[in-house]
Amino acid sequence: MDRFLLQKDGRAFKRKAETDGEKRPGKIRSYDTSYLNFGFTCITINGEIKPQFVVCGMTLANESLKPNKLKHHLETTHGLLVGKNTDFFARKLEDIIHQKDTVKNLVSTPTNALKASYQVAYHIAKNKKPFTDGEKVILPAILDMARTMLGEKAAEKFKMVPISDTTVCRRISDMSEDIHRQLIARLKSSLFALQLDEATDLSKEAHLIAYVRYCYKTLILEDFLFCKPIKGHATSAALFDILNDFLCSNDLNWESCVGICTDGAPSMCGARAGLKAKVLKVAPHILWTHCMIHREALAVRNMDRELGEVLNSAVKIVNFIKAHPTRACLFAIVCAEMGAEHYGLLFHTEVRWLSRGKVLNRIFELRNEVRQFLLDVDPYKAEQLCNPRWLVLLAYLADIFDKLNSLNLSLQGAKSTSFTMYKKTSAFKKKLELWRRLIQDGLLEAFPCLAEALEDTGYELESAAEVIINHLTSLRDSLEKYFPEETDHVNDWVFQPFLVGAGTRLPVHLQEDPIEVQSDRILQMQFNKISLGEFWLAMSEEHSGLSKIAVKILLPFSSSYLCEIGFSSLAVLKTKYSSRLEVEHNLRMAVARIHPQIDRLSGEKQVNPSH
After folding, report:
1. What gap in Å lies between CA 524 and CA 331, rounded to an integer?
2. Rg (alpha carbons) of the chain, rounded to whole number
3. What is the DSSP string of 352-395?
4. Strand order of the sheet with strand 3-6?
5. What 3 state SS string does 434-462 have?
């Protein structure tokens, strides 16, 4: 079969005949165009509309427009069109143009629909929902509301918003990268501090998570930095490589990092082979901090033998009832019949900071219901709940761990500093001394559960006072070990700049600046209205040296509280239904405080539908 191709210059067709592998030129007599993409358009010549043959989207050369060639093609290929007038071809041209416009409208999505797609993906990621919720839940709900409230025409517009699961995934990645770029740009021009932690997710994969505290304009801000998988063992070398590679790949300097806060794991805080040793080798100026919330949890962990047995037996009772579904249901019925406020006990979890206090308070609150249930199910296990001394010590543990939970909660939260945390722990140690003296004097206003238990059982406080006083004393000593009192108060001028004598430990050339600050009444008024970080950053122009030293003291984290929030969010994101999820983009969108630049992202993207 002879085949003809249009030359790129558009001058003419040339025949390339292939017969038994030989090529021979010849004149154009007839040709087969079945394999070409061709059509008609029209041109006006001397006021008369004439059809024009188009091949592969290009108009043929003048040589191909000879009347005899056009007539021959029309008769051989489009025989049904022979005899049609010029009006027919004019209508054909209008139809082709209309079809092009229709197809263009169908396959393109307005910019507003693209922006709406980003907004829907943002809310899905912020609320840690599956990607499929966009197409399966949100869009159908929007269409139903639009039809009901605005009519079918409005609903058709919402159909143009692309929110399939793959589209939502791409949108989340785009917004996450945009947030990351904004954060890195801020860190390049600021000092910053880090908090690090590592944990294992549902699929047994270890991750290193990092948060950062930095200066931005007149504020000290905190935000999510990264969450990287740990390949192999979570050794100090592996952790350092992840951290160092991240800083180097994003052009961040170790010199700009002023502090790192971690938990007390050996791989983190090891002075010889831990991450701390490796970091201080490359950046010896960094202030390394052991998380103060973890320290508080370690300080309250130990107790004497008798109190430990009360705690363990209470946990065994909870497990006996709670771990068996039938027993749990029967216990709920007993609670309902006896008019209890709660219908179930709480499991004890050693790794959760507030677990002990909540478990002990719940079992003490439901002690009568638990006793009645155990007498019916297993009378032997109810003996302890019938023992007055056991109930009194349980009540004391419920009271003291409730107070420890309050201390733990006060240490949590964003923008906390070591100064504020030390003030709270110092105050709690003084409270322990007060409570010890009250127990010695027989005053129980600070221990409501203990007072209730003594009244219900008729047990004498003196019989249990020695155990309680010893525990309060050992608890204070343990807190003193983990939170020693500061004696020099060298940095008090940062937190209380208007005290007399503040800043005496500063370099000589800066010791005049605190005097000027203390003499400025306007600064005193501002100090009471804005946060500590805003106050010192606002002085960066007038007292730059003093401001820089103060910021270096304020930036380091005093706890890894944000990392714990990150891992809680990770547990919500990576479930058994999404065990293969790449978590960093989704985690950043869920917990980051920086808002993505949706207008810029939607303006850069090509607009295409996903359904």
Report:
1. 60
2. 38
3. STTHHHHHHHHHHHTHHHHHHHHHHH-GGGGTGGG-HHHHHHHH
4. 3-6, 13-19, 22-24
5. HHHHHHHCCCCCCCHHHHHHHHHHCCCHH
User: Which amino acid belongs to residue 255?
Assistant: E
Q: Write the DSSP symbol of residue 18.
A: E
520: left (phi over 0), alpha (psi -120 to 50) or beta: beta
Instruction: Give the H or E element holding residue 195.
Output: strand 192-200
| Nearest Cα residue to 1 out of 18, 15, 13 | 18
Question: H-helix or E-strand containing 48?
Answer: strand 48-55
pLDDT band, very low/low/confident/very high, at 308 (cuts 50, 70, 90): very high
For 404-444, what is each residue's pLDDT tens digit?
A: 999 999 998 888 888 889 899 999 999 999 999 999 999 99
What secondary structure letter does DSSP report for 486?
P
Closest CA to 393 of 311, 297, 300: 311
Within its chain, how far is the Cα of 491 from the centroid? 33
Structure tokens given for 18: 């292939």
Kindly give the interhelix angle for 165-187 and 583-591, rounded to the nearest 10 degrees. 70
Q: What is the pTM of this model?
A: 0.78
What phi, psi does 247 have (nearest 5°)? Answer: -65, -45
Average pLDDT over residues 518-547: 88
- Which pLDDT score is estimated for 48? 52
